[in-house]
Write the C-alpha cells for this entry.
Amino acid sequence: MNNLSKPNNGLKQYIVGFILSLIFSVVPFLGVISGYFSVIAAIIIILICATIQFFIQMVFFMHITEGGNAKWNVFSVLFTSIITLVIVVGSVWIMYSLDHFAGYHSTKVDIHPKH
Amino acid sequence: MKNNHLHMEHNDHNDSVMPQFGFLTYLMTDIMIFGTLIATFIVLSNNFLPPKFNLNDILLETILLLTSSFTVGLALLYTKANNVKVAVVWFIITWLLGATFLYIELKEFAWLISNGFGPSSHAYFSSFFALVGTHGLHVTFGLLWMLVLVIQLLMKGANITTLKKLTIFSLFWHFLDIVWIFVFSIVYLIGAL
C-alpha cells in the first residue's frame, strides 16, 4: 500500500470503462426509443451492446484480466458464460419449438359431434 | 526428486488473490442463478404484451447503477492510497446512487402491484418479479454490506484487511451492474419493442 493521498494508477481504467459503458448503455436505449430499427434488428443491437458492455465492465471494472490470477479469472468467467448461454438459449429454443410444434399432431375435437 | 510436476499451481500463487478468486467463483454461481431466472422470464414472456414501461425511469436507473459502479472503483482507489476520508465520501456517494436506484425500482413495483400486475397476476409477472426482485434483493444486501464495511473502514482505517474486504465488496457491486445490463436489455428494452 502506498501512502499517496491521491490515486493515480487504475483511475484511467475506471474512466475509460465508465465512458464506454455509458455509450453502450445509451445506444440500445436510443435504438428502441427512436423506433428506427425493425424488431429483429433492435434485438440484435440490444444483445450485442449488452455483451460488449459485459466484457467492458469485466475488464475495466472488475480487472479480471489483471493480477497473478488473471488466467483463472478469465477462464472461470468464460466457462460460466458459455454454460449460461447454453441454458438460456437452449431453454428458449426448446420452449419455442414446443410451442411451435405442440398443436401439429393434436386431435381436433369437434364440439358439435354428429351422430 | 523432481517428481512433483503434478502439484497444483495454486501452491505458487500469492495467497492474497485466493479470497478474490473464491468470491469470483461465488459470483459465477450467482450468474447461473440469474441466467435461469432470465431464461424463465424469456419463456414466460412469449405471446404476452407487457404494460408500457417508463423507459426514462429505466434509463435513469441504469445510469445510477453504472455511475455507482464507477464511484465504488474510485472509493477503492482512494482506500488503496490510504486516503480514508475521501474514500468514505465516494462510498457514501455510491451508497446514495444505489439507494436511489432501489427507490425507483420499488416505486415501479408498487405501481405494478397496485394496478393489478402483481406477481400472482400472470406468469409473466411471476417471472418478472422473480428476476428483477432478486436483483433488487442483491442490491439491498449490497447496500447493507457497504454500510458495515464503511463503518469498519472509519473505525479501523485502511489496512490490508479492510482493503481486502472492500475489494471483494466492489467485485459484488460491479457484478450487480453487470447483471443489470442484461436485465434492462432483456426485460425492458426488448419488452418495449
